[in-house]
Amino acid sequence: MRACWWTGLASIAEAGLTPPIAPPRFTWPRGIVFAADCVAALVLVPLVTLALLASRGSGALWPHLARYVLPQAAFETVLLAGVGAIVAVVGAGTAWLVTAYQFPGRHVLGWALLLPLAMPTYIVAYAYLDVLHPLGPVQSGLRALLGLARPSDLAFPEVRSLGGCALLLGFVLYPYVYLNARAAFAMQSADALDAARTLGAAGLALFLRVAVPLAWPAIAAGLGLALMETLNDVGAAEFLGVQTLTRAVYVTWVTRGSVEGAAGIALAMLVLVGGLVALERAARRRTSHASTGSANAARRVLGPVQALLATCACALPVLVGFAVPALHLLGAAWRRVAEAGLPPALGAWVGSSALFAAVATMAALCAGLLLAFAMRVAGRGDLLRLASLGYALPGTVIAVGLLTPLGALDNALDDAARMVTGAGIGLVLSGSGAALVLAYVIRYLAIPAGGLEAGYAKLPAALDDAGRAFGATD
Questions:
Q1: Quick one: pLDDT at residue 362?
Q2: How many other CB atoms sit within 10 Å of the CB of residue 154?
Q3: Which of 198, 230, 367, 474 is most buried, by CB atoms within 10 Å?
Q4: If you write DSSP's letter for every residue of 424-445 in order, what string do you get?
Q5: Burial class (CB in 10 A: 0-12, 13-18, 19+), 40
Q6: ∠214-216-218 over CA atoms, to 5°?
C-alpha cells in the first residue's frame, strides 16, 4: 500500500501537479492500547485478591473439599456444559429462520426471541418447579385428563435433575447465540448464498454448509458467553439439585464460613474457564470471513405448512424461556398484591436499579469497544481473553474480590484526609455506587467485547488500508 502511494506521488510530481491529499500517517495507537491495558487490569483485581485469599489456606477443610466435593462438582459442571448444544441449535436455527424466510409472526418473534434474557435463571427454575410439581397445574391437568387419582400414577420426567437444569438453562441462554447469529446472517451477501444454490445447496444444506460456516465467529462468541453464564449460575443449579463448582463456592463460603476455601474453588473454576476460552478461540481460528459481494439476500416466502412449522419453531423458545415463567410470576405477584399491596419502596428500587443498569451498561460498552478496537488495530487478543474471565465468576465472588482492595484504598484515602484536614471522608469507593458499577463492568465486560470483536471480524482489512491511504490514522 505504501509503495503504491509513493509511486503515485512521484507520477504526480513529474506532471507538475499538487497531490490532493497528504501522505498517510501510520501511527501506533499507543493511547488506545494503554487504555485497553488498564481495562484488562481491572478484571485482574478480583482474581489477584482471590489468589491472595486462597494462599492463606483453609486448614483441614481443603483436603475434604478436594476429596469429596470438587470431583462430583467438576463432573456435573462438565456435563452441564451440554447446554451449549441446546443454545447453538436453538439460537442459530431461529436466527436463520427470522433472517432468511418470511412467515406469519416473523416481525414479532424477531424481537420476542430476546425476551428470555430478561428472566434470571433462578427465577425460571423456581417457576418451573411450581408449574411442573406433582401437585402443580401441568401434572394435575394430565392426571385429570387421563383419569388418574394419585401423583405416583403418572410417570413424569423429573425437573430436579441434571437434564432438566440443562434444558431450562438452554432455553433461557440461547439469545446470546441468537443475537450474534442474526446479525451475522443479516450481513451475508446474496452472492455467496446464490452461488451455493446454483450448486445444489438448499434448505438445511444451505444453512449448515454455507450460512453457519460464514457466521461461525459470531456464533462461537455467543456460545462462549452462554457456557460461561452456565458455569456462573448458582440459583438454578441449587433449586434443581445440581452440584456445580459455583454452588460449591457458595456452600463453602456461606455454610462452612471459609472464604479461603471458596476462593480456592473459584481459582479451580478459572482453570475450566481458561480451557473454555481456549476452545472457543480455537474454534474461531481461521474461520473469520469478511462480508463481500452484493446486497443481502431477500427473504424467501415459505409455503403454508413450512410457514406454520417455522412459526412454531420460533415461538417455542419464547414460550418455554419467557412466557411460562412470566405468567406464573404474574399470577403469584397478583395474589401477593391482592393480599398485602405494593411495597412502599418499590419506586425507589426500580429507579436505582434502572440508574445503575444504565451507567454500568454505558461503561461496559465503552470498555468493550476499547478492547475490541485494540484487538483490531494491534492484535491484542490477550486483552479480550482476560476480559472474558470475569464473566465466569459468580457476582458475589467478584464483590468479595473487590471489597478487599477498595476497602484498603478507602482507608488510605481516609487516613490522608485526616492528616490534611483533620476530618475523615468515610468510604468513598466501597461505600458508594462506584463499587457496584465496577463489579457490573467486570462481570459483563465479555458481552460487549465479544460482540464488537465479532462485528469487526466481518469488516475486511482492506477498509482499514483504504482509510489509511486517504490520510486517516489509527
A1: 92
A2: 13
A3: 230
A4: ----SSTTSHHHHHHHHHHHHT
A5: buried
A6: 110
| CA contacts within 13 A on the Cβ side of 326 | 12
Backbone angles phi, psi at 281, to 5 degrees: -70, -40
Amino acid identity for residue 468 in this structure: R
In terms of Cβ atoms closer than 10 Å to its own Cβ (0-12, 13-18, 19+), residue 101 is middle
User: Would you call 301 helix, strand, or coil by DSSP?
Assistant: strand
- Cell numbers 476462593 correspond to 263
Is the confidence at residue 399, as pLDDT, over 80? no
Backbone angles phi, psi at 300, to 5 degrees: -95, 135
> Global pTM?
0.73
**Residues of the chain above pLDDT 70, percent:** 81
Longest Cα–Cα distance in the chain: 100
| pLDDT of 11 over the 70 cut | no
- Indicate whether 287 pLDDT > 50: yes
Q: At which residue does the C-alpha cell 444451505 appear?
A: 206
Mean pLDDT of 58-71: 74
Estimate to the nearest angstrom the gap between the alpha carbon of 20 and the chain centroid: 47
Q: What's the rounded Cα separation, in Å, for the pair 369 and 363?
A: 10
Helices 162-173 and 70-80, packing angle to 10 deg:
50
Phi and psi at residue 402, to the nearest 5°:
-90, -30
Closest by CA position to 307, among listed 117, 106, 133: 106
**104-127 average pLDDT score:** 90
Mean pLDDT taken over the chain: 78
pLDDT at 283: 65
pLDDT at 213: 81
Buried b / exposed e over 318-345, threshold 16 CB at 10 Å, is: bebbbbbbbebbeeeeeeeeeeeeeeee
For residue 376, give the 3-state DSSP assignment. Answer: helix
Measure the CA–CA gap between 422 and 16, rounded to whole angstroms: 74
CB atoms within 10 A of CB 51: 16
